[in-house]
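To: structure desk
From: M.T.
Subject: fold request, one chain
Message: Could you run this one when you get a chance? Sequence is below, nothing fancy, just the single chain.
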Amino acid sequence: METEQHSLFPMSPIVEDRALELVELMASIGERDPSDEERGYIARMLVQACFPYRRVASNEFSRVANSFRMTMMAPSEVGLPFGVMPRLIFMWMTREALFKKDRRLELGHSLTEFMSQLDLPLTGGKNGTITRLRDQMKRMASSTLSVTYDNGRSWSLRHVGMIEEAELWWEEKEKIKKDDQPDLWNSTILLSESFFREITNRPVPFDMRVVHLIRKKSQSPLALDLFLWLNYRLKYLSRPTEIPWKKLQLQFGANYADTRQGRFEFKKEFSKQMEIVRGAFKKAAPSIQELTDGTGIKLLPGETSIPAIPSLS
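Reply: Done. Structure tokens follow.
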């Protein structure tokens, strides 16, 4: 007999005012499909496991999704990337590499121009966006990835170096240009061959308008990860699927302690952010139910928030 479930989200969820506003805005976005310019893309590997949500003391960080484990490492004097900005940067890198079909990417003539491409406000000071973007770019350029698959019957390992070369200029080009060569001082990054293949091989499409709304209204990297994960899962989900809370915490809650209190806090935050994200799926919001024994959730088929990837040939 099938295990009984009840809704993970009550009919009148208690969420913050800004979260309710976000749900309404995402519902209005869902009234039309995104244009080509509004489509975003992300590597499947980074949907299954992504960066820390906040600063971590260690220079090594792992996330697990079933048989998949991604481990990120960085020099201790630099540190690991974390938060919303690295996610935005990788979305940008995936789209640029996908459409330009080139490992070498130009970030623009200045830091200001690049921040405009990321739709980031330009603010200075110790905690401003300029300072934080510089810091996160250095962390990303210095980090390496290793990916393992272990299903109990076989084990495999891949090392995926992300950025092979980086030349980043923090000052405006006009302030440092010595001659009339217009492109001499452009900031550039060269993706490694393995990472270029990884991010351009059947990436997951998503609606970039929703990402911008989540960033501006929620500021939650967990909400971004859940949105991208649902896009990926719903594309292939053909029948109801049960997912234990333990697995969800391994994938999305690596920053939470594996204690009763830690599990409670993760479940509370997961539920709050998932209620926000479900508003992006106006066509067919995915139904999520919690198993009555409290061991996990059931994800029912829905419809992704964006049509299939258009032909890029």
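Reply (cont.): Residues 1-6, 10-15, 176-184 have pLDDT under 50 and may be disordered. Let me know if you need anything else for the meeting.
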